[in-house]
Amino acid sequence: MSLLVAQDLHKSFGRTRALEGAGLTIRAGEIVAVMGPSGSGKSTLLHCLAGILPPDSGTVTYRDRELTTMSDSARSELRRTEFGFVFQFGQLVPELTCLENVALPLRLSGVKRRDAERAAREWMARLEVDAVADQRPGETSGGQGQRVAVARALVTGPKVVFADEPTGALDSLNGERVMHLLTTAARETGAAVVLVTHEPRVAAYSDREVVVRDGRSRDVEFVR
Ligand code: ADP
Ligand code: ADP
């Protein structure tokens, strides 16, 4: 089943044409690596797919709902309930403990503190970061911080997790651990993953690779 379909996306920043006719289909539960050289448009494509950035033209459809014509509030609601996000760094709230960070998306959806924190603890255990539950993000290692971020992305039960260079700031051992735990958890919950990376070792965790070049995601797809 096609979950998320982007067609003929164009996006410019001033005179820079970041996307020039990019398209991508994500099926339920699949893990797709978006590869390509630096500056080719990978992050821009991910942001358009996730409804964070409006394309200049083209369509993004999530389960028959057109993201580009939705109201801002409908789009935020969809992001909050259906999508999860993991970025390279800086996405945890420094003033909150790691547990509070993981519980935050549930709290924002109106879940009671006790229930939110119970679910957060379970997810932290799955990501092997229960030991840092009461620490602040600044007190953890980079690898622990990214695993906390993955727990936070998954705690709401998203259908799609967007991960933009999630291992970009980690050494290869910690990177592999993050990828292993992220993809295992995604497979267990049936979440699809859209993974932007330039590292073949990270892309190796995907089911399928798509290459973006000069703002176009080529039909060059490596299917494992
Ligand atoms: P070309 O084939 O034109 O030399 P590249 O092989 O450099 O192009 O591919 C462009 C981008 O796609 C690079 O970032 C590269 O890492 C990635 N890429 C291409 N083929 C693969 C592959 N089989 N596995 C992983 N990454 C790939
Ligand atoms: P990638 O993720 O493949 O490295 P990006 O999608 O980040 O590529 O960027 C594609 C092109 O768009 C680059 O030339 C980049 O400099 C430009 N770009 C991306 N975001 C912005 C922005 N907010 N403002 C101006 N230029 C941008």
TrEMBL record:
GO CC terms: plasma membrane
SMART domains: AAA (SM00382)
Assigned keywords, A-Z: ATP-binding, Nucleotide-binding, Transport
GO molecular function, one term: transmembrane transporter activity
Pfam families attached to this UniProt entry: ABC_tran (PF00005)
Domain ABC transporter: 4-223
PANTHER family, per the entry: ABC TRANSPORTER RELATED, IMPORT ATP-BINDING PROTEIN
Name of the protein in its database record: Putative ABC transport system ATP-binding protein
Originating organism: Lentzea jiangxiensis
